[in-house]
Write a structure and sequence with these properties.
A: mainly alpha; two-stranded parallel ribbon; 5 strands; B: Penicillin-binding protein 2a (Domain 2); Beta-lactamase; 3 domains; seven-stranded mixed sheet; elongated
Chain lengths: ~400, ~625
């Protein structure tokens, strides 16, 4: 039986009246979360088919090629999702450093000749079925490890305070951020930073320490610019959204085309397969990072609202799970996963409509890509795990 | 974890949730702004992106002579173009330098054409035409060195008869930007870059020859590749035009004019103390029964092939500003001259019709006459005694015509009737003939109204506003301010030959669309010159006498043409400061006129001396006699 309740029908106090038998984890699967995630994945599959078929047709290839692959990824993702539910998340806590370490190892491997380079970025390890993107794995690994460290801290010393957790979070983030940056993949690095802030916030770190971190971060960014550590193309991509029309053929071109695609979709959209911008490939990377342009053009404002509504349900259920969690570890993990999803969706959709810089961040559940889909499902799986075991 | 700690954690989570909510609200607002408030603007952007209209020039119709011989047709020219939108500025520089070397042209020429902004960004810019095949093969084989360079065959104009009839045929050129909105071209929906007829028949029959442009509406993807043809209208070939021109006669006419001028340049002119310059001339051959133009020659001529694929400025200058003889000028219609004595049949018609002269009258022909304190001389100084009307014409006696001119002046002074001008207009002078060709000159029939106007406008050149007797007297022998084009003169003689009907001269005979053919309607109600048959017969007779006993008799001695008879009139026009202009207008056979020939030579001598021999050779060619060598005669009017 799935639990659609908890929102109005039953208040938190009523939990005490639930019998022990009804505390079995399987009886507390979050139906809302499941439906929302499945809905996003389904819309994603349709959009991937719509965005990739025209070019495949032109080249005489199977128009369902990417759809089929995404469905394979989805089946792998459901396996990963199932696996995350098997063991009580609290028992996973001690293994969090190993997950983090494994992800770190993969991030090192990807920089060796084993890593695959696509369009100048070395981000993938070829696993045959799909290309593993270690940065995606690290997102989950980082959330788990950071939550584990912070919750242990708090158990020992009572209320959390001081700069120690902030320093710990930053130290844990520093190495993967640096490794991911080397690929280079600025977007994924930023996801880790955003997650760090969210987890620290939920953990109860005083605001002044976070402000200090922001100031330090900005200072480091300034130094990075001065030292030319950041590639010129990254700066251009990051600033293009502020003046996309000044240089329409180059950096701003993608953004301009993306805005044209979404804007021309209008209120109701042009219909699946009928978006000219999508069909004629005016928007680059339209089945991966720019998948939202296909939805915006072909399903219009309504389609966008549906996607954002589904994400709202996901975020709401994650936050709610964090609130329901009896222990801090669970709250931090659920909050971290929510932050990871929220940051990615905001930056991804934001870049397609010109309010965020263009960075290579996929839209969770929707964008084409194996690792992203699997880690997103794994992340939601952990949240589901917390939700299911909130009475245990 | 304590309940209190859980409480603060929940507050912090709620705060995180609020941040998420505001992020999502931001996205929704932005989407609303793009997709609902500004959707139209972006929809237009998507449309612009995706749709390309590509025009396809139709094949132009051919121009044929009256017997179906091809005068202008289409061929293929190998064209090298650059797709400039595919290349970066550095690549463009590199490619144009390599191309310049391969084509053997200055790199500046290529760069200049690349700057052409009249072509759309998606149209490859042609940088060289008529490229030799091996150069094209070289470019194709080394395509990696020539990125964005395209070679293809393009239809062009081909002139199988080379320079033949170049003035009549005209040439092609790109429409000028300011012409696109012209009334004439608006209807045909031309755009910058359209190739149009710029002169002659190509201009006159543009509407039929051009054909209908094809149009393809293409869907283009982000890399400029065509995905689909959304709509297509096939280009429709222009209609073929069958003209009235007879290529064989045109050829004889051109040859005869060129040779005649060459001969004239060897004749010494005592008054100017040098040989005739004879730089230019024009000839018109017409069918007097219909107004069909059989041939028209203008010397010097030009090669219309030079205009194929666009003429260079240097080449164009050679044909225009840098050449005093203006080879592009069609002297048959675009230049007007004093007709000299060839105008006398008009004066004679006026005199006979108004009773100033009689067919059977006899008139004194002294070396000069004095009228109103001025001496008017005959072209020869000796007294010829008393002459009949027929002899007066045959010998072209000016001193007989002067008194008739004076009579016309008196009529004008007494009752404001401009008799001579009236007859000149009846024969088509002073007004465009209406031939299809562009830039036709109207010539001039001077009268008091005209004089007053030019006096007002140019008081220095025309100091008198009053019509003086000398004006009419000079006009009676085709001098003074009367001006006519060779075509006007030919048409006037056609009217004499055909019994008084003034046709509209024309060049278009039929339009062909594959096997379908339709005749061009050239009837614009032919006008009668309104001269009595008896008087017209007298004039016709006197013109026959010109070639048998008159000023052109020596030219036609021993000509096989005498079997059919030639009727004509010589003329010599004087211009202050210039050598005489020679004229001869004639028709044959004299009793069954089928062809009119009018010859004019600028500074080429006297009519009987140089112009008549040219006409003789043309007639001999027309009637398929062995054309005799052109032999200049004595310097007679």
């Amino acid at each position: 039986m799935t639990d659609f309740a908890g929102f109005g029908s039953r208040n938190y106090a009523s939990r005490d009246r639930i019998s022990m038998s009804s505390k079995a984890p399987i009886r507390h699967v979050d139906g809302w979360l499941m439906l929302a995630v499945m809905g996003l994945t389904a819309v994603g599959c349709i959009a991937i088919r719509s965005a990739s078929a025209p070019l495949l047709n032109v080249n005489g290839e199977d128009p369902d090629y990417y759809l089929k692959r995404q469905l394979i990824f989805f089946s792998l993702a459901t396996v990963a999702f199932g696996l995350t539910l098997l063991v009580d998340y609290r028992q996973l806590q001690p293994y969090a450093p190993f997950l983090y370490g494994a992800a770190l190892f993969l991030l090192l491997v990807v920089l060796t000749p084993l890593g695959q380079t696509v369009k100048g970025a070395q981000r993938w390890i070829n696993l045959g079925v799909f290309q593993l993107q270690p940065a995606e794995v690290m997102k989950i690994g980082y959330i788990m490890f950071l939550a584990a460290v912070l919750s242990r801290e708090r158990r020992q010393e009572g209320p959390i305070s001081g700069a120690t957790p902030v320093v710990q979070a930053m130290l844990l983030a520093a190495v993967p951020v640096f490794l991911i940056y080397l690929q280079p993949d600025l977007g994924s690095s930023l996801v880790l930073v955003a997650v760090a802030f969210a987890v620290l916030l939920v953990a109860g770190v005083q605001v002044r320490w976070m402000v200090l971190v922001v100031v330090a971060g900005l200072a480091m960014g300034g130094v990075a610019l001065k030292l030319d550590v950041v590639h010129q193309y990254q700066i251009e991509r990051l600033t293009a959204f502020m003046d996309s029309e000044a240089d329409p053929q180059r950096t701003g071109f993608n953004l301009e085309q993306s805005k044209i695609a979404i804007g021309s979709g209008g209120f109701g959209g042009k219909g699946w397969g009928k978006g000219t911008q999508t069909n004629l490939a005016y928007v680059p990377e339209q089945r991966t990072d720019f998948i939202f342009t296909a939805i915006g053009e072909e399903q219009g404002f309504l389609g966008g609202v549906v996607i954002l509504s589904l994400f709202s349900v996901v975020l709401w259920r994650c936050i709610r799970t964090a609130m329901l969690s009896k222990d801090l570890f669970g709250a931090l993990v659920a909050g971290g996963v929510a932050a990871m999803l929220a940051f990615q969706l905001f930056v991804n959709i934001g870049m397609t409509i010109g309010i965020m810089p263009i960075t290579g961040i996929p839209l969770p559940f929707v964008s084409y890509g194996g690792t992203s889909l699997i880690t997103s499902f794994a992340g939601v799986g952990v949240v589901m795990n917390i939700h299911m075991r909130r009475f245990v | 974890m304590s309940q209190a700690a859980l409480g603060t954690t929940r507050i912090r989570l709620a705060f995180l949730g609020a941040i998420f909510a505001s992020l999502i609200a931001t996205l929704v607002l932005r989407l609303y702004f793009l997709q609902v408030l500004n959707s139209d603007e972006f929809a237009a952007g998507a449309e612009r992106n995706q749709i390309r209209l590509v025009q396809e020039e139709p094949a132009r119709g051919q121009i044929l002579d009256r017997n179906g011989e091809v005068l202008v047709t289409n061929g293929m020219s190998l064209v090298v173009s650059i797709k400039r939108q595919e290349l970066s500025p550095e690549q463009l520089t590199q490619v144009s330098e390599r191309l310049a070397q391969a084509l053997g042209v200055p790199v500046d020429d290529i760069n200049k054409r690349l700057e052409d902004r009249t072509l759309s960004a998606f149209t490859p810019v042609p940088v060289a035409e008529n490229v030799p095949e091996d150069t094209v093969v070289y470019i194709r084989e080394h395509q990696e060195q020539f990125p964005g360079v395209e070679t293809k065959a393009q239809p062009t104009r081909v002139y199988p008869q080379q320079k033949l009839a170049s003035h009549l045929l005209g040439y092609l050129g790109e429409i000028l930007p300011e012409q696109v909105d012209d009334e004439r071209y608006k209807e045909l929906q031309y755009r910058p870059g359209s190739v149009i007829g710029r002169g002659g028949i190509e201009y006159a029959y543009e509407k039929y020859l051009h054909g209908t442009e094809g149009l393809r509406k293409l869907e283009v993807d982000s890399s400029g590749e065509v995905r689909r043809v959304l709509a297509r209208r096939e280009p429709k070939k222009g209609l073929d035009l069958v003209t009235t021109i007879d290529a064989r006669i045109q050829k004889v006419t051109e040859e005869s004019l060129a040779r005649g001028l060459e001969k004239a340049r060897n004749i010494y002119h005592p008054e100017s103390r040098k040989k005739y310059l004879a730089p230019a001339g024009g000839v018109v051959v017409m069918d007097p029964r219909s107004g069909e133009i059989i041939a028209m020659a203008s010397f010097p001529d030009y090669d219309p092939g030079a205009f194929v694929g666009g003429i260079s400025q240097a080449e164009y200058d050679e044909l225009t500003t840098k050449n005093p003889a203006f080879p592009l000028l069609n002297r048959g219609i675009q230049a007007a001259y004093a007709p000299g004595s060839t105008f006398k049949p008009v004066t004679a018609a006026a005199a006979l019709e108004t009773g100033v002269a009689q067919v059977n009258g006899r008139y004194a022909c002294p070396g000069s006459v004095r009228i109103a304190d001025r001496t008017f001389r005959n072209w020869k100084t000796t007294d010829s005694g008393m002459l009949t009307f027929n002899q007066a014409m045959a010998d072209s006696c000016d001193t007989i015509f002067y008194p008739w001119g004076l009579e016309f002046y008196r009529t004008f002074r007494n009752n404001k009737t401009e008799v001579l001008q009236d007859y000149a207009r009846r024969f088509g002078f002073g007004r465009r003939t209406g031939v299809e060709l562009p830039f036709e000159k109207a010539g001039r029939v001077p009268d008091e109204g005209w004089l007053k106007a030019v006096n007002k406008e140019l008081p220095e050149a025309f100091p008198y506003a009053t019509w003086l007797p000398g004006y009419t007297i000079n006009m009676s022998i085709g001098q003074g301010d009367v001006l006519a084009t060779p075509l006007q003169l030919a048409n006037a003689y056609a009217a004499i030959a055909n019994g008084g009907i003034l046709h509209r001269p024309h060049l278009g005979l039929k339009l062909r669309d594959g096997n379908e053919e339709r005749t061009i309607n050239n009837e614009s109600k032919p006008r009668s010159v309104a001269v009595s048959p008896a008087n017209l017969a007298a004039i016709q007779g006197s013109l026959e006498a010109v070639t048998t006993v008159g000023t052109a008799a020596s030219t036609f001695v021993n000509s096989p043409l005498n079997a059919i008879g030639v009727a004509g009139k010589t003329g010599t026009a004087e211009f202050a400061g210039k050598q005489p202009f020679a004229w001869f207008a004639a028709y044959a056979p004299a009793r069954d006129p089928q062809y009119v020939v009018a010859v004019m030579l600028e500074e080429g001598g006297h009519g009987g001396e140089t112009a008549a021999p040219i006409a003789r050779r043309i007639f001999e060619g027309i009637f398929e006699f062995e054309p005799a060598e052109i032999t200049p005669q004595a310097a007679v009017d």
